[in-house]
Amino acid sequence: xxxxxxxxxxxxxxxxxxxxxxxxxxxxxxxxxxxxxxxxxxxxxxxxxxxxxxxxxxxxxxxxxxxxxxxxxxxxxxxxxxxxxxxxxxxxxxxxxxxxxxxxxxxxxxxxxxxxxxxxxxxxxxxxxxxxxxxxxxxxxxxxxxxxxxxxxxxxxxxxxxxxxxxxxxxxxxxxxxxxxxxxxxxxxxxxxxxxxxxxxxxxxxxxxxxxxxxxxxxxxxxxxxxxxxxxxxxxxxxxxxxxxxxxxxxxxxxxxxxxxxxxxxxxxxxxxxxxxxxxxxxxxxxxxxxxxxxxxxxxxxxxxxxxxxxxxxxxxxxxxxxxxxxxxxxxxx
Length: 334
Known about the structure:
The protein is of the alpha+beta class. Helix content is 38%, strand content 20%. The strands form three sheets. Strands 1, 2, 3, 8, 9, 10, 11 and 12 form an eight-stranded antiparallel sheet that branches. The N and C termini lie far apart (42 Å).
């Protein structure tokens, strides 16, 4: 861990303090506010300047899986040869569908490896319907079914191609993780204040919400031929490989031409357009239900046509079979 800190010490790290979040979403039932989600939002214009912000975009936080496109770009910089569907899977929080499991198995096979080489946590498929089918087949937790298996398979392939050890590829001091930390620093413009383990066991680097959004913008607007552009093209062309059939992030990318989007646990979302406009969202309580309505409102601030975002802007609240309210963006975003 000290090795990672040494690599990232060249840039100033965001302050490791409690973030100052503000109300960003209301759940309204029958005309009364029944629930409030706090959080932070940042919107960047095409020049990388802050067009809008609410809450605290500068405190250190963990981006969770929203950092995966940055990590994928770091692996491509280090020599990862994947393209298209398999590169999208390397940046995925996938649903555990057969296409995802087959893709992760293919990456491993091309590197001369197997599922036994993976060091991510074993889990059931992430998507509820896929998980139910999995359980009906009497299958248990699997490293391939776990939503980060594409990233781990790509990490192993990168390490194998570079001649680095594979058994300890998740050690923060491993050459692979040092290279990824350097890419995180480069694309976010932030130093890393803290390093911990993500839910899948991989090293997780803290940055600011502003830095994460800046990285999303740089990947989405990258020049042809760059590692970042390869990742952006893969995600935009294959959003279902990076998430899953019917997932809200895949639908959002299909709805908004050219949009690159990635979600993360604990209410994190990034979205960026090819001209560099970008948004970053963090829901303070980690509530996933507020993530997409707040992101849709931020994208409107970013200049995206409101009509394209209509299905994402409000989540109906039901009383019996009738709609009696909605969950939607609030505060300065409204």
